[in-house]
Amino acid sequence: MKMRVRTLVGLILLVSLLVLPSATVSADRTRVVYVATFEGVITSYSVDQFSRYIEIAESNHAEALIIELDTPGGRGDAMQEIIQRIKESRVPVIIYVYPPGAIAASAGTYIALGSHLIAMAPGTSIGACEPILGYSSNGSIVKAPEKIRNFYIAYIKSLAQASGRNETAAELFITEDLSLTPEEALKSHVIEVVADDLDDLLQKANGMTTKIPVAGRGKVTLNFTDVRVVRIGPSLKDEVVRYISDPTVAYVLINIGILGLIFGFLTPGWHVPETVGAILLVLGVIGLGYFGYNSAGLLLVGLSIIFFIAEALTPTFGLFTVAGVVTMVIGGILLFGGGNEYLIQSSTFSTLRIVIITIALLLGLFFAFGVAAIIRDRKKKAQTGREEMIGETGKVVQDLSPEGMVKIRGELWKAVSRNGETIKAGEVVEVVDMKGLTLIVEKVEEKEVP
């Protein structure tokens, strides 16, 4: 009987030890809010970055994920994939346009409207969503045709309608390229919160209900009381891709990479220029791949470099230089035209056009004068030394018996007669060979000495 009682007591203690710790952990468990940052152009890689942020928040059962956003926009297809991932998220995703001076333009506006809550910091802006197709061959920005505009108008209105936000303002973001300040956006019911910083956001959003349902949970009331904030830093890959996928940076990398390869071919044996050039060229092409580009434009950029090299090797009084400049400008512009729908600020493309024209002109001047001079200098160097001295004539100033001194081009040289014969001072000799700094000469008939 005593053994049964002891056994029963032991079982009760064992169960208590197993249950109490878990109850304690559950009681002590604090709510966590994850905060991530996204800045730069929205590309196909941005989808992976947003997905990674959401997966981390989901796996840790976060109260919410706040994404601090600063973007001029980007690719339309990437934007739609990001919005779809937000809809599938099992935690509320709050888009916070931050820091002051940040923008959520074009594709960034769509992503904000597709989120569970929108907040903006003072001094930021949202809107300007007109779709464009990049450049035309004459360098003008191509606005999307009516059917594409109508699609995006319907899409942004549906996002606003699903979240109970202002459909009229959403439509004006496209039709009038409207842009709003935080105060205007709040007054127009486009956003929900204007917050100075993260702490202010957590305080003001506490108790709010998400504007759209959270996957599997419906609309969620946010509880940010005594939450713990955990920041998700961008990975090294995120930082590298963000940098090289900027269209301006990618274009500059490609041009520097091509220059490096050319210098490598012109200066064989060093290997540094062509190695660095190849790396930069590959990074530039990868960056353009994320942003989207027209391969015909890339071919024209390569053709322009061939024209520049041809001008340096076979000077044509500027014909190949002009052809290279024109081809590079057209190629650079076509590089970002056709095949992709962009939701990005027009100013981004305007800046890019200036960069394309500037680089083309600088490369034209460089190849017309700089590289041509280098090649001429290399050819000149190939004629100096032994090759240049052989065949030259001069006068003996100190008897060669067989060694003595001769004067050639006004300079004194140590010389040795070829056959060991004695050659008197004042006689004319011709250089037939050279060993080190000693000339091998032979006597020739009297003739004018240069």
TrEMBL record:
SUPFAM superfamilies given in the database record: ClpP/crotonase (SSF52096), NfeD domain-like (SSF141322)
Stored Pfam families: NfeD (PF01957), NfeD1b_N (PF25145), NfeD_membrane (PF24961)
Metal-binding found in the keyword field: no
Family annotation (InterPro entries): ClpP/crotonase-like_dom_sf, Membrane_assoc_protease, NA-bd_OB-fold, NfeD-like_C, NfeD1b_N, NfeD_membrane
Domain NfeD1b N-terminal as annotated: residue spans: 43-195
Domain NfeD-like C-terminal: 386-443
Key words of the record: Membrane, Transmembrane, Transmembrane helix
Keyword Membrane on entry: yes
UniProt subcellular location: Membrane
UniProt domain NfeD integral membrane: residue ranges: 248-369
Any one annotated GO CC term: membrane
Protein name in UniProt: Nodulation protein NfeD
Organism: Thermococcus gorgonarius
